């Protein structure tokens, strides 16, 4: 998933500087999103946009999907799947 300046070039939150982006990447913080997926439905005066981001520590195989559902809002529900690994307790013999 793109991470360079949040994968967008003209959104209001693109005010973040390259230095901030470098700092977050250095701390292994990732922005999970798809810059090609609309997350907020526009209206007569505003176009549809993608302002919603998810921030987390780097993890493998994370999926970030925009559903076609909205709950009394102009924002779509985002489904995030983060695989987990549950370790069994160490057994002493």
Write up what this structure looks like.
This protein is mainly beta. The chain has one domain (4-81). It has 1 helix and 4 strands. Strands 1-2 form a two-stranded antiparallel sheet. A two-stranded antiparallel sheet has the order 3-4. The longest helix has 9 residues, at 18-26.
**What amount of the residues lies in strands?**
15-25%
The averaged pLDDT comes out at 75
End-to-end distance, in Å?
45 Å
Radius of gyration using CA atoms only: 17 Å
Shape verdict? flat
Q: Helix and strand string, N-terminal first?
A: HEEEE
Query: Roughly how much helix do the residues carry, as a percent range?
Result: under 10%
Counting copies of identical and different chains, the oligomeric state is: single chain
Low-pLDDT regions: 1-15
Protein name: Endonuclease/exonuclease/phosphatase domain-containing protein
Organism: Haemaphysalis longicornis (Bush tick)
């Amino acid at each position: 998933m793109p991470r360079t300046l949040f994968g967008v070039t003209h959104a209001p939150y693109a005010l973040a500087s390259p230095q901030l982006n470098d700092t977050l990447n250095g701390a292994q913080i990732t922005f999970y999103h798809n810059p090609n997926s609309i997350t907020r439905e526009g209206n007569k005066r505003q176009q549809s946009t993608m302002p919603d981001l998810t921030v987390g520590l780097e993890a493998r195989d994370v999926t970030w999907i925009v559903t076609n559902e909205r709950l009394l809002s102009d924002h779509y529900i985002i489904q995030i799947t983060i695989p987990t690994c549950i370790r069994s307790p160490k057994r002493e013999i």
